[in-house]
Design the sequence.
């Protein structure tokens, strides 16, 4: 029998957050090992649950959720999202400019498939949330990674962005607050990115799924609020701000120069119709979530659970020899650096696998986020302080043994 092979379209598609190291972790769990997982931003397993009022409203509407709805989403949900875009000062977003999807993930793929022809390029940050790079590749495009500068708080390097624009460049992706670094971009930097997009007629894709997960009184500015003449596609949803990942309720809004984007918008409408509609029960949670009590504010405030866990993880990591880290101002992650003089790592996936095997702690290597060198990894600080202390203590033990083995202690 001839082997059945996967599509060649998947040749450059990679998603290491749920990649081969996770598969190894699953096998270890089947053998009876307890693995502390710091690899994925999934709040529920760590005791962060969706607010009760969201659950109650969704349950109350289940009897109305058994049929298809409008391909763009429920009217009441889109109306609530429209009001939210107004609160974020994003101009000119009407009901028909809003698409609800099965999480932002589906909408990212949809947005790329509607835009890209073979060989088209999209500027994507390095490090990035790897679904963006994967979606570009799956759609026939090429992800060109612009550097975010760790020495400047992980802010995008404007000159590097400009240097990587070619006649094939169609768009630029901005992840703010950033995953995996936790950086939040100031207004002045966003305006510089918009000027580049304006000059080269690029679409701006703004991934703002963590726009309420902010620490130390940081303020988030939606890039789409700063320009009415640049086409902006802004992504958001319930997964992180409302700890409702499993409800798969995300959305995107189209703003800015829609006049010259009529054909592209027609493509979005076609793809939205082809999948019939997004998960309907989850859509019934949106209006209540956006209009209700914002419990995320309690979690990120000084003394709140997320703020305490962030501070603990940062302190423990930066106390380890040869480990440095930019303190995250948003999101649920940090992206520490391992000094190559102390940790001469050649293959960071193998490094993470050895950590898993020896210490039963699961992380994701930096190259899994399309970082350029094997000297970083991402830490999720969702576990409670006891589990987080244990996990990072095990990491510290592993790093100590690594230094001893390589004579860099």
Sequence:
């Amino acid at each position: 029998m001839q082997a059945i092979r996967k599509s060649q379209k998947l040749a450059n598609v990679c998603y290491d957050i749920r990649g081969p190291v996770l598969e190894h972790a699953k096998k270890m769990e089947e053998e009876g090992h307890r693995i502390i997982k710091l690899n994925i931003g999934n709040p529920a397993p760590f005791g962060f649950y969706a607010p009760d009022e969201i659950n109650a409203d969704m349950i109350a509407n289940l009897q109305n959720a058994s049929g298809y709805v409008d391909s763009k989403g429920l009217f009441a949900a889109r109306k609530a999202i429209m009001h939210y875009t107004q609160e974020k000062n994003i101009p000119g977003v009407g009901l028909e400019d809003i698409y609800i999807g099965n999480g932002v993930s589906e909408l990212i793929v949809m947005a790329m498939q509607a835009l890209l022809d073979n060989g088209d390029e999209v500027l994507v940050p390095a490090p990035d949330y790897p679904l963006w790079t994967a979606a570009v590749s799956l759609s026939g495009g090429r992800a060109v990674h612009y550097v975010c500068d760790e020495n400047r708080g992980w802010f995008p390097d404007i000159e590097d962005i400009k240097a990587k624009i070619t006649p094939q460049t169609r768009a630029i992706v901005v992840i703010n607050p950033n995953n995996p670094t936790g950086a939040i971009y100031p207004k002045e930097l966003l305006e510089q990115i918009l000027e580049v997009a304006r000059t080269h007629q690029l679409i701006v894709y703004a991934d703002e799924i963590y726009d309420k997960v902010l620490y130390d009184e940081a303020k988030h500015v939606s890039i789409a609020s700063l320009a009415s003449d640049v086409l902006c596609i802004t992504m958001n949803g319930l997964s992180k701000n409302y700890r409702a990942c499993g409800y798969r309720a995300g959305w995107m809004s189209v703003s800015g120069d829609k006049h010259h984007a009529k054909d592209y918008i027609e493509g979005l409408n076609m793809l939205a119709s082809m999948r019939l509609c997004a998960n309907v029960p989850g859509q019934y949670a949106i209006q209540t979530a956006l209009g209700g009590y914002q419990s995320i504010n309690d979690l990120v405030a000084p003394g709140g659970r997320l703020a305490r866990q962030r501070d603990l993880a940062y302190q423990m990591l930066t106390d380890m020899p040869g480990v440095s880290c930019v303190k995250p101002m948003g999101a649920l992650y940090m992206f520490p650096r391992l000094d190559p003089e102390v940790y001469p790592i050649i293959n960071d996936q193998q490094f993470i696998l050895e950590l898993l095997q020896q210490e039963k702690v699961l992380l994701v290597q930096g190259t899994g986020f399309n970082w350029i060198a094997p000297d970083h990894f991402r830490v999720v600080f969702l576990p409670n302080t006891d589990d987080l202390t244990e996990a990072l203590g095990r990491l510290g033990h592993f790093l100590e043994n690594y230094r001893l083995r390589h004579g860099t202690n």
